[in-house]
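Entry for the shared binder. Reason: the reviewer on the internal report wants the predicted structure included alongside the sequence.
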Amino acid sequence: MTTADRLTGAPGRAPGAPPPTKRGAGSTVRRHRRTPASGRRRRRRAVALLYLLPALLPYTLFAVLPMLHTAYLSLFDWDGVTLPSFTGVDNYRRIVTDPQLRAAAWHAGALILFFSVLPICVGLVSAAIVSRRAGRPGTALVRTVLFLPQVIPLVAVGILWRWVYAEDGTLNQALRAVGLGGLADAWLGSFTWALPAVGLIGTWVVSGLCMVLFLSGTQRIDQEIYEAARMDGAGPVREFTSITVPLLRPEFAVALSITVIAALSSFDLIYITTGGGPGNSTVVPGILIYRLAFGGGAVGVASALAVVLTAVISLAVLVINRLSREAP
């Protein structure tokens, strides 16, 4: 034992032995403090999973597993009856090289203008007008009428607009009544006008949803901002462009995501109105998947197209959300 050990009362140690490890009391306390907290977090996660389980199980059974099965079928050449043969990524190569598949993709891209861009513009202007007339007679009725197409089943919407677009339908009768009978046409049977005609139906359906989204956004904007702008001499147009539009960025992201999904995954409306015709002028990926799988005996190609369509929609939504968060 050294002199220092005798003076301090510390026990001696053998020569060459490693010095004793110094452990502060704080490390032990911190270790004991972290353990209950981590246990509470694990219990909270377990409770959260239990709450999610009733929805997670059906979603897994009816969405995730069929999606994985579709991805599996996309690797085979199968007509739905005989034994499938493995082809690897040949079905995906066909999607890239087939002109009909590329045309369907272009048609879906064109529908974004009618299902997304136009409804957002119409819904934004409608929301601005309705919000300025809040509390006045008739405002609630106007809001209900504009939103009504969103709650009507798309099958009924398609049948209704087939009557409107018919050769002796409402639209052509109105054109003849005002002396514009030369413009009357079989709109859904025209190679030129069939796709825009169907797109305008989508504009009519989706505009009400966009209006409601933007109306909910305008209600969270502090009215003192508008009052300050009015004191500075800003008019309605200036308030709309400088205050309303910039502060509705989250609603823009939601509306754009919903409408882009509706445009890229459109099926029922086109199936009821044109069936993809005349010819292939209104064929979109959804219609083509149906034709290939149930009419053409090409289940593998249809599955590959469904996988690609799902990936494109997911990527589009991801980009929209990322840009909406990074925008100033």
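Summary line for the report: Strands lie at 76-77, 85-86.
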